[in-house]
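*** Protein under study ***
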Amino acid sequence: MPDEVKVYPCALIEGSRLVGRYERGEWRPYTEDELLDVLADDIVVTPAFCRISRMIRDFSSDDIMVGNKKPNLRQLVENRLAAQGDGTTVREFAIARSAWRAPTWMSYLLMRKWRTRRR
């Protein structure tokens, strides 16, 4: 079982192969309500030990033809979960928090590894 997952809802980007299927009516993105329901359901069934580090791709809204364009998707899902009232929250991974609790030498290694990946 993974201890971390990333959730990337599909959005249609101009120039992708999915554009043809969209134009032929073979594919359509979720509506906002459908997407929030699907993501909220996914969060509820995700094991408590599994962190969800991302919930949206970092594309410019101008590049997205159809699909989710809201950068605060995680917040919208959390609001949907709160409205359902089951107490489930989105567990987020934070390298800085992990490094803060680790010994100094380990903090350096964690932050070094993180910086290397970001470049």
